[in-house]
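Hey, I'm writing a tutorial for new members on how sequence and structure tokens pair up, and I'd like a real worked example in the thread rather than a made-up one. If someone can provide the structure for the chain below, I'll link this post from the tutorial.
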Amino acid sequence: NTNGTEETPDQPPSGPVGQAPPKSKEPERPPEMPRLTETVGGVLTRKGNVVVEPALSYSFVGNNRVFVDAFTFLPAILIGLTDIRQVKRHSIFASLGLRYGVTSRLEVEARVPYVYRADHQRARPFNTGAANDQVFNADGNNIGDLEFAARYQLSNGSGGWPILVGNMLTTVPTGKSPFDLKFVESKIDVPSGEGTTTSTFRFPIEVPTGTGFFTFQPSITALYPTAPAVFFGNLNYTYTMSTSESIGKIDAGDAVGMTFGMGFSVNNRTSFNLGYSHRHFFETKINGRKIGGSALDIGQLLLGYSFRYSKQTNYNLSVGVGTTDNAQDVSLNFRVPMTF
């Protein structure tokens, strides 16, 4: 240079420069997935946020039932009445849910459902010579059972462990109880060994919109993110409180269940998941005596889609297909969570 001194070229720093940003103390949030059930899917509400979630659901159940009021004296000869009955049930649920983020780990929710249900029964006594079917239809609508839920994130998934979320779901029997329905009687003359006898069949002319029981369902959900997929699983237990009715003390069976599957993110606005749910209900008791054959197994194949319409609004559609005799044939659920 002009003054005869030699410039020293710039040297890279020998160590870190400045200060690293502080690590966030907020727990890692569960990944967002389409909601399949009240305990699987979705994402915890952020602290101080409110989520308003209108929802519309539809379910259909159809099966054939055989009632036998008879006796046999040879394996191929039956004396009495065999009633073959076809039952179809359509249910529509409109509900409004409200969720609030109490902390970064805890959210609470309340949901008010309104239920419309239509039952169609077609019956024909098999061996009375009756040529016409007996058709009994019943429908009704009313408020359903109120639901209250709380969800707490137990771990943040560090160290290769899954994210764990504890759930508590409670239902209050505010809907029309199945024990308070009105019935109509149908009398049929049935041939017997001593001429004819009269058999009486009762058909409901009202439909329930609730279960008639308080229920409490604790569960735990595990989420394991492996981008772009998320594996999930849920274990739950349902405790049903007993109730006293005109026929005695009824103790509906408790239930154990599980759900598992995988969610996949297509892009930053669209995701879907696929899962399976299975619940086993233990036998019902009346006055302490078990009702034979009252245990149930309900299995469903679940498919969910989620689309982020805007920063505040999501569209969420889930489909359930029954895989066991006691399960709903099909169920559809459309939710629109809106965050404020």
